[in-house]
Structures are given as C-alpha cells and as structure tokens.
Amino acid sequence: MRLRRIIRGKENNRDADRKLREIAAGLDLPNPFSIERLCDAISKKRGRPLYLHAVDRGTAEQVPCGVWLATDIGDHVFVEESTSELHRSHIILHELCHMLLKHSFVPDPNSPDSRAITANSSFSNISMETISSMLGRTSYTTRDEQEAEALAGLIAGRVQAAKEDPAASDDRLVAHLLHALREA
Question: Which of 53, 71, 74, 178 could form a disulfide with 130 if both were Cys (CB 3.0 to 4.6 A apart)?
C-alpha cells in the first residue's frame, strides 16, 4: 500500500510512512484474531479499561459511525450497530488506531458535533465534563483521520496475511514450528 497517496501534509511522507509501519509491526496481534481480543490487548497496553458500545444512529447523519471518547476512567468506542460485522470491525480498528497514534481532541461541549453526539441516547450516560478527548469518524479530510485510516489498513493487512499464511506469522516460534511440520 502506498501510504503517500493517503496521507497528505507538511510532514515528510517517508517519516509518516515509517512511523505507521513501525506501529503496525510492533503491535502484538492476538492469534486467532478478533477485534474484541485486540481491544483487550490495547486496553492492557494502555492500562485503562476499554468499552465497546453499539450506537443507533437513526436518521442523524451528523452522528459519526464510530466515536472514541476518552474519559477520566477509561476509553469508550461507539460503533454503528446497523452495519456489517466486517464494517463494524474496521470502524473499531480505526478508533483503536487513534489511540495507538495518541491522537487527541478536546471537544467544545457547545459545538454542533458535540451536541449531536450527546443528544443521541446511546451517549446519554456520559457527561461532557468527564470527556478528556473525543474523536468521531465522519470524514477523512484531517491528517489524524488519514493517519488512523492508513494504520488501520496496515494492521488489517497483517491480520489478513496471517490468515492466508500462518507460516508468515510474526511469532517466530509459530512460524518455525509450522515450517518444520511442512518439511516433515
């Protein structure tokens, strides 16, 4: 994947490519992979609970299909409930990538986006005062969104490669054992 086409900006594209590839390569992916197991691993790595919530977007187009809210007690990822399992997993992965990239945005509680999100009943039990960062997936026009999407693509590529060829696993012991079994 050519990341330079996805990520635009003033920062040197090679540095951005390298940073994303290093994060993707350094991530210990659960085997067998599931998005829930990856959430558990990232929660442990960050030292804070991570909660997944289904969101009924209804007809409110301004409510993003995915939202990451960081509060003083944990991380909350909200994902559209009326979508396919594959799309759900990708939305969650995208939001997890914001965490891995240490993206942060302090919301203005009076902004139209904040009001639209908090007006949705799925968010009613979270007070805007407890939110330390809020990122919502609505478009890919910002650098943070482009980086999160590119990193999600790299991680998804690693997951797919491991499914197609278990011998290509990042786990050297697993790869060695599989290679030995094939040679026998």
Answer: 71
Q: Measured between alpha carbons, how far is 98 from 20 in angstroms, rounded to an integer?
A: 12
Helix or strand run (H / E) with residue 134: strand 131-137
pLDDT tens, 149-176?
Answer: 999 999 999 998 888 776 555 555 655 5
* Distance (Å, whole) CA 88 – CA 80: 7
Model pLDDT, residue 64? 67
CB atoms within 10 A of CB 118: 18
- Spatial separation of the C-alpha atoms in residues 147 and 6, rounded to whole Å: 8
What are the residues whose beta carbons fall under 8 Å from the beta carbon of 166, sequence distance 6 or more? 174, 178
**Residue ranges per domain, the chain?**
3-183
pTM passes above 0.90 = no
- Cβ neighbours of residue 117 closer than 8 Å, sequence gap 6 or more: 63, 64, 67, 123, 134, 136
φ/ψ of residue 66, rounded to 5 = -150, 140
- Residues 132-162 as b/e (b if ≥16 CB within 10 A, e otherwise) read ebbbbbbeeeeeebbbbbbbbbbbbebbeeb
Q: What is the radius of gyration, based on Cα positions, of the chain? A: 18
